[in-house]
Automatic annotation (TrEMBL):
Pfam family, one: adh_short_C2
Database matches in Gene3D superfamilies: NAD(P)-binding Rossmann-like Domain
UniProt entry keywords in alphabetical sequence: NADP, Oxidoreductase
UniProt GO MF annotations: oxidoreductase activity
Family assignment from sequence similarity: Belongs to the short-chain dehydrogenases/reductases (SDR) family.
Protein name: Uncharacterized protein
Length: 281
């Protein structure tokens, strides 16, 4: 009897599919959020709600996403602008999403902000804003979407929450003239929040995981990349010799939303090419 005859082979054909799923992407109008939304639509989601603070940005993103040629028939991206830092806006966001769906399968909590300034003059208002958006609003976004996330979730088909943290929350972020202490602290908090929510929400059939991106060329990161030596410098800092690409973040979010990750809960996955292992973020 062969080794293959002695084991049971399973059908893994759709292991990375999110066919028919409903997703909400905060901070979805640009950068990592937009890349993830594109990946989710192309992997089979039927609806992807795009939210960020600016209405025009949301509408532009949705127009581009709905023009994708290889999404499932009838699939659509839907614009729902909202300021995630305000509780009344989060309530409105959930109410707007409820108008066109009775459940949510995937919540990518990606909205965030940063501030760079030296230690001696780092302003209190900026520190508070970063912590509020990167930690408090993430918690309350998840809290307010939980009824929709649990609506159709089961033990064998759980809903997913993916929180965007950062390798700055694992190692030491930027210090010196453009120090980002609030960003680093907020992303460390986001990682620990994901672990707490994994335990809190797991019994409700919601899996919560965090991703920790390194530097991806984006509007938020571009200024800091230039200040710290440019693209070539960061490529040389990474063991794999490059920065993140759109498909890297899209693929990771699709994986964490698919059946392939159904036994991951409270995990933190760095997507930085190994740069944090070099101690050079």
């Amino acid at each position: 009897m062969s080794a293959v005859d002695q084991v049971q082979l399973n059908d893994f054909l759709d292991i990375f599919s999110v066919e028919g799923k409903v997703a909400v992407v905060t901070g979805g109008s640009r950068g990592l959020g937009l890349h993830a939304a594109s990946g989710l639509l192309q992997a089979g989601c039927s609806k992807v709600y795009i939210t960020s603070r600016k209405t025009v940005a949301c509408e532009d993103a949705v127009t581009a996403l709905n023009a994708l040629p290889n999404k499932r028939p009838g699939a659509q991206a839907i614009s729902v602008p909202a300021d995630s830092s305000r509780m009344n806006e989060l309530d409105r966001l959930v109410a707007e999403v409820r108008k066109t769906t009775d459940h949510v399968d995937i919540l990518f909590a990606n909205a965030g902000a940063s501030w760079g300034e030296k230690f001696d003059t780092h302003p209190e208002a900026a520190f508070s804003r970063v912590m509020d958006l990167n930690v408090k609003s993430v918690f309350y976004t998840i809290q307010k979407f939980t009824p929709l996330l649990t609506a159709k979730a089961t033990r064998d088909e759980p809903s997913r929450v993916v929180i965007t943290a950062s390798i700055a929350g694992i190692g030491v972020g930027t210090v010196g003239e453009n120090a980002t202490p609030s960003y680093s602290a907020s992303k460390a908090a986001a990682i620990h929040l994901a672990k707490n929510l994994a335990v809190e929400l797991g019994p409700r059939h919601i899996l919560t995981n965090a991703i920790a991106p390194g530097f991806y060329p984006s509007k938020m990161a571009s200024g800091l990349i230039e200040l710290k030596g440019g693209l070539k410098h960061f490529q040389e800092c990474s063991p794999n010799g490059r920065l993140g690409r759109p498909e890297d973040i899209a693929g990771l979010v699709v994986f964490l939303s698919s059946r392939a990750s159904s036994h991951l809960n409270g995990a933190v996955i760095a997507t930085d090419g190994g740069a944090v292992l070099n101690g050079r973020l």
